[in-house]
């Protein structure tokens, strides 16, 4: 499935189930572990109200099978406002090019939004698949940085970025 096609569907109320399904020890291994139900509900509400970016359900095209989620949002970084991106792809779709296709699609979405020059992603340095997704999707590696995610949990991440004006 090297030429996998995905479509990004704007986040909506029923997508809460995507967050619940992604809230496992395996899928949250590099993100501080599973969240409580209260935290999942709060995250869902933030995604529904996001006015400085957009969250999406990732669907395989054609057919609409839900493969995960991806989005972008504003973040302050090195004294400027940039976009940050993050994603979850369910285990049965991992290793098939779905996340890379979704990352390329989110680059296009952020480019269309057009408010900032840079889109960043900050995968854990010890997460080879997410770092490979960044590379394959066209992000450039800036280098390792100290990062906090979730808030209060320090981690060492790679700072990847895409110039949206290029």
Structure commentary:
The protein is of the alpha+beta class. It is 28% helix and 35% strand. The protein has four helices and seven strands. The chain has a seven-stranded mixed β-sheet with strand order 1-2-3-4-5-7-6, sandwiched between helices. The protein is globular and about 35 Å long.
Provide a compact summary of the structure.
The protein is an alpha+beta fold.
Give the SSE layout:
Blueprint lengths: L5 E5 L5 H7 L14 H13 L3 E8 L5 E12 L2 E10 L8 H16 L4 E4 L6 H10 L2 E9 L5 E10 L3
Parallel strand pairs: 4-5
Antiparallel strand pairs: 1-2, 2-3, 3-4, 5-7, 6-7
Helix pairs in contact: 3-4
Number of helices: 4
Query: What distance separates the N and C termini?
Result: 28 Å
One letter per element, helices H and strands E, the order comes to: EHHEEEHEHEE
Structural class: alpha+beta
Helix content: 25-40%
- Most strands sheet: 7 strands, mixed
Molecular shape = globular
The total count of strands amounts to 7
Report the average pLDDT across residues: 93
Radius of gyration: 15 Å
Indicate the proportion of strand residues. Answer: 25-35%
Largest sheet, spatial ordering of strands: 1-2-3-4-5-7-6
Uncertain stretches of 5 or more adjacent residues: none
């Amino acid at each position: 499935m090297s030429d996998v096609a995905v479509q990004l569907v704007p986040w909506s109320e029923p997508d809460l189930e995507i967050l619940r399904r992604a809230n496992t020890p395996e899928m949250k291994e590099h993100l501080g572990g599973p969240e409580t139900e209260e935290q999942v509900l709060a995250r869902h509400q933030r995604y529904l109200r996001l006015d400085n970016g957009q969250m999406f359900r990732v669907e395989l095209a054609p057919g609409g099978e839900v493969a995960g989620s991806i989005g972008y949002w504003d973040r302050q970084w090195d004294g400027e406002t940039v976009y940050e991106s993050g994603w979850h792809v369910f285990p049965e779709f991992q290793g098939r090019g779905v996340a890379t296709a979704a990352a390329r699609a989110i680059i296009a979405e952020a480019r269309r939004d057009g408010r900032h020059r840079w889109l960043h992603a900050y995968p854990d340095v010890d997460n080879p698949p997410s770092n490979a997704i960044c590379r394959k999707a066209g992000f450039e590696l800036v280098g390792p940085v100290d990062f906090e995610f979730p808030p209060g949990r320090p981690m060492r991440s790679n700072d990847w970025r895409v110039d949206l004006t290029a």
